[in-house]
Amino acid sequence: MSSKPICVHCCHCSECQKQTGSAFVLNAIIEADRVEFDGPIVENTLPTPSGKGQVITRCATCGVAVFSSYMARLGKLRYIRVGTLDNPSDCPPDVQIFTSSKQDWVQLNTEIPVFEDFYDFAEVWPEDALARWNTLFGENA
Question: In what residue span(s) does the CENP-V/GFA domain sit (predicted)?
Fold first, then answer.
């Protein structure tokens, strides 16, 4: 990533659990033009609970998911899998979402905002993140 992300989600939804084989996923949301990667990729389109779908971009060599793009924002945003970064500790979560479906044994960090489902960006994101979103989409978050 050529800059810090707009926001980092820790998503506990059941679909992320299935897709990652883990209890949650950490996604760093960033503008597509701020993402650089090397090597061959493959893309798979998967369903989402919203019905809109997402494209998962994987390393063609090892198959690991590197980032995803939701169909509604395709080409503008990337949801980078934080664990694939050279320094994943640089991207701690800003918000915990869909905690209504989290695994019972997962302990939530009370210092990070928690939402049972999704949330209003304006409740969590700082002004600079909202401005970046508005630049991309010409709308309020």
Answer: 1-106
User: Tell me, what CATH number does 34's domain have?
Assistant: 3.90.1590.10
Q: 10-residue block means of pLDDT along the chain (141 residues)? A: 96 91 96 93 85 90 93 86 95 97 96 95 94 86 50
Q: What total of structural domains would you count in the chain?
A: 1
Run of H or E residues at 20: helix 14-20
Nearest by Cα to 3 from 31, 40, 43, 39: 31
Q: Do the domain assignments include residue 16?
A: yes
**Ordered DSSP codes for 70-92:** EGGGTTTEEEEEGGGSS-GGG--
pTM over 0.85: yes
